[in-house]
Amino acid sequence: MTKIAVLGAGSWGTVLGSLLADKGNEVILYGNNAQVNQEINTEHTNTHYMKDWQVNETVWATANLKQALNNVAIILFVLPTQAIRSVAKEVKLVLNQSNLQPLVVTATKGIEPGSKKLISEILTEEIYPENPEKIVAISGPSHAESVAQKDLTAITCASISKENAQRVQTIFTNDYLRLYTNSDLIGVEVAGAVKNVIAIAAGILAGKGYGDNAKAALMTRGLAEITRLGVNCYQAQPMTFSGLAGIGDLIVTCTSVNSRNWRCGKQLGEGKSFAYIVENMGQVIEGATTVKAIHEICQEKAIDMPISEAVYRVLYEKSSVATEITKMMDRKPKQEIRL
Ligand SMILES: NC(=O)C1=CN([C@@H]2O[C@H](COP(=O)(O)OP(=O)(O)OC[C@H]3O[C@@H](n4cnc5c(N)ncnc54)[C@H](OP(=O)(O)O)[C@@H]3O)[C@@H](O)[C@H]2O)C=CC1
Ligand SMILES: O=C(CO)COP(=O)(O)O
Asked: Which residues form the active site (predicted)?
């Protein structure tokens, strides 16, 4: 039995925590909302984030980080990107008071605006500057709602340490969740972060009433710009983008009503304001944060990311969807394959 602290009591944190507890691990969920924690501990539900679903009864939720990290072997970050750095700093303070060197796993998908850093880079910087091999990322097509229903799911676990990736593979694997290891940690994280932006664009097209051809074109050209960013700005390996964290996650996020990013886009396409959507989603829309970081990268480096930049202008520069679609189709003719 492994003691695992899951940081983030939202939809994905609760489902992963419950899955790990189903395998006999001791799981403590760190959540900042006392009411949610109490519901998990007494009712074994988390109804705001996961409807009609029971949490494993052995999962214990707490707002006390020190208690959550007591004797822990694995820390799993499942927080929104914007909360990662501040919570990582707190984790470091707690770890400094012990001799523990737990493995740090991230399930968060995003790029931090300002620093333009990936989650593993933030966690390395804040927790393990001397031991980057202790960071592992899990990513791939895996909506919490589907995993909660035990839908057959395959994802990737990536680390610069083969041994640590294999350890995480063993800990998470069960009869409906299969993990593959990947040594391209950076590529896996770029893919997981940027597909959220493309999913917003896919939702916009759906909301505007466009059909299957538009969806296929968007996803294919979206993958081209994700790969271009990963290879040129993060030295990722191109093949990673053909894998579960790349095309796999792009497919599920651009086609599923479970995707918050896609739902955000759909409502934008239907004419709702971004402020209204954020107010009513009640959950994180990671693509809306990551697109800011992408915009910063595009400003600094000559990297062509037309779909992401269009999403940025719709969200943050009050550009209309119709204007951006016209602009997109009016761009000068290009050859298809280029990095
Ligand atoms: N949901 C999914 O299917 C999947 C999600 N992911 C990724 O996992 C990450 C988390 O997503 P998800 O669980 O869906 O998000 P949710 O919006 O469902 O939940 C986010 C949780 O984080 C908590 N939180 C926010 N800030 C802090 C903080 N400073 N300290 C402690 N807790 C905090 C929120 O608490 P509060 O209630 O107080 O707001 C909430 O419980 C994202 O990066 C997402 O892309 C990856 C794969 C699948
Ligand atoms: O990453 C996800 C599925 O793999 C979750 O996507 P959303 O955040 O868009 O719901």
From this structure: 195 (proton acceptor)
